[in-house]
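EI: anyone free to look at a 189-residue chain?
SC: sure, send it
EI:
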Amino acid sequence: MRKKRRLNPFGIPDVKIFETAKIIGIENITFGKFDMIDDFVLIYAKGKIRLGDYVHLSSFTSIIGGGELIMEDFSGIAAGCRIVTGTDDYKGFGFGNPCVDAKFRNLQSGKIHIGRFSVIGSNSVILPNVTIGEGATVGAGSVVTKDLEPWGVYVGNKKIGERDKNGVLENYADFLSMPEQERVSAYFV
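SC: here you go
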C-alpha cells in the first residue's frame, strides 16, 4: 500500500504545504484558503507575507530578502522562480554579503505586490519594489525590475501582448457559480 503524503505539516486549515517545503518565519505569513506550496519551496519570511486565496507556489521557488510580499487571489508562481524582496546594491558604497555587518552593505529592500490572476513563468526573478498588475503574465526566464501594467503579457519588463481579460473574468464567474467542493483541486478534498 502506498503511503499518503502529508500535505499540511503546519496544521493550517485549507492550505497544502508539501513536506519538503522549508518555511522560516511562518509567524510572518498570512495564508488564504486553498493555497498550495509545493515540495522544495524555500520561504524566508523576515518581512510580512500575505497570500490570498487559491495561491500556488511551485517547486524550487524561493521567496527571500526580508521585505514584504503580497500575492493576491488566484496568483501563481511557476517552478524555479526567485521572489527577491531585498538585495545588495553594489552601485554605491556597499560590499560584501550577509557575512559582514549591514553597515558595510548597501541593502535595498522593498515590497513586491503580485496582483489577482497574475502568473509568473518558470525561472523568472522578481526584484524589490515591483508591482505586477492584475492579470499580468510574465514569460519564463524573465527578470522583472519595474512595475507591470494589468492584463499585459510580458517578457522581462517588455510588454509583448494583452491577456484575454474578458475570458478570464467569464471563467471566474463560472468558477463562482459552482459549489466550493467543485472549485478546488483534488488535493483539498
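EI: The longest helix spans residues 165-177.
SC: 👍
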